[in-house]
Amino acid sequence: MLRYDALHNFDSNQLDLQHKTKTNPFKRQANMGSSNQNTGKIKTNFVPRVNQLDSIQLDNEITNLLRQQIQNILQVLPPGLLSHLQPEINFVLNSALWNFSIRTHYATFGQQMLSIAYEKDQLPSAKLALHYLLTTVLPYAKENAQFRLTNWSRVQKLLQLAENALVLFNLVNFFKFLRSGTRPSLVDCLLRINHRSLDGAKRRTIGYSYMTRELVWAGFLELLGFTIPFVNYHALKRKLRNLLRIEAAPQRQDERVELTADTRCAYCNERVILPHHMGCRHVFCYLCLKGNQLADAGFQCNVCDYRSETFRKVVVL
Fold it and tell me: Per the UniProt record, which residue ranges are transmembrane (predicted)?
């Protein structure tokens, strides 16, 4: 968020400077003809850095969503039926995305959502083919080699070196993009293609309504975290249980306690550890009984509703 706000403010200041230069009356009188030409250029060519970065992230999210849908479909098939064709499936998906975006509209789907497109005159047929090669064919070749040539150590080392070099080149290109504001991806830099705005050089309006919702939810959670410890959950559960179910009269204290090898704790329903009883014939673990009596002074047996403030150890005769 801080990065995006900084880029947005930088682009807004740059846009204001362009508009001030464009609307300066002295420069407009001196260069009337050139300002008319620059007006159209500013409105169509200026694209904020934030929009260009957002378009790349949107493209990645769209690709991941489509891949997830394909994986969900393939899960219906028998296991391993098409697992060996994973590189080809990704290649077909990327080719379809490229065909219906770059080839048809000269813009990716993420760019179309932000009203951005490439300059058509900068993408002739030769550059379109090269763009397809760099964005679709080469990733398929790399994935295919990593998937099927795992035993070729030299090929894997070369691929690792190539990936490290691409990471370095992308980092250098990113700093170059921050300085110039054009060509955010390495493919755009290699092909020397620029973006243009379809809606003109408008300010990017950022809404903070989602941050307001987050603050409201954070305040609500803090309120719950502050008030919940004051609520005696065990006593509330006991009272609610007594209201919702009809039980017989509490059993007498002199009933015989039954303890066998299969006896389970009346509270946790597990094998009894350190068996104790509170006066009725039901047996509890020591920690279950002691913990409930400490949490709720009016604790009752959750089976027969017998109530006692003391408890004793079960003695096996």
Answer: 215-236
Burial of 283 (0-12, 13-18, 19+ CB in 10 A): buried
Separation of alpha carbons 172 and 267, rounded Å: 64
Do 94 and 160 sit in the same domain of this protein? yes
- The overall longest dimension of the chain from CA atoms, in Å, is 113
Tens-level pLDDT at each residue, the chain (317 residues): 444 555 555 555 555 545 444 444 444 444 444 444 444 444 456 788 888 888 999 999 999 999 888 888 888 877 777 778 888 888 999 999 999 999 988 999 988 888 889 988 888 999 999 999 999 999 999 888 888 888 888 888 898 899 999 999 999 999 999 888 888 999 999 999 988 888 765 555 666 777 788 888 888 889 888 888 777 777 777 777 777 765 544 555 556 777 777 888 888 888 888 888 888 888 889 888 888 888 877 788 877 878 877 778 877 65
Rounded Cα–Cα distance for residues 294 and 286 (Å) = 12
Task: Write down the residue that tokens 């964005």 correspond to.
Answer: 135
Distance CA 146, CA 69 (A): 23
> What ranges make up the beta strands (E) of 26-180?
116-118
Number of domains composing the chain: 2
- Write down which residue in 197, 212, 242 finishes a domain: 197
C-alpha Rg value of the chain to the nearest Å? 35
- Tell me the pairing of strands 284-285 and 195-197: unpaired
Distance CA 194, CA 165 (A): 24
CA angle 239, 230, 300 (to 5 degrees): 30
- Encode 208-241 in three state secondary structure: CHHHHHHHHHHHHHHHHHHHHHHCCHHHHHHHHH
- 262 and 122 in a common domain: no
Q: Who's near 192: CB < 8 A, 6+ residues apart?
A: 122, 183
Please state, as a whole number, how many other Cβ atoms lie within 10 Å of the Cβ of residue 179: 8
* 179, part of any domain: yes
Identify the CA nearest to 204 among candidates 7, 19, 2: 7
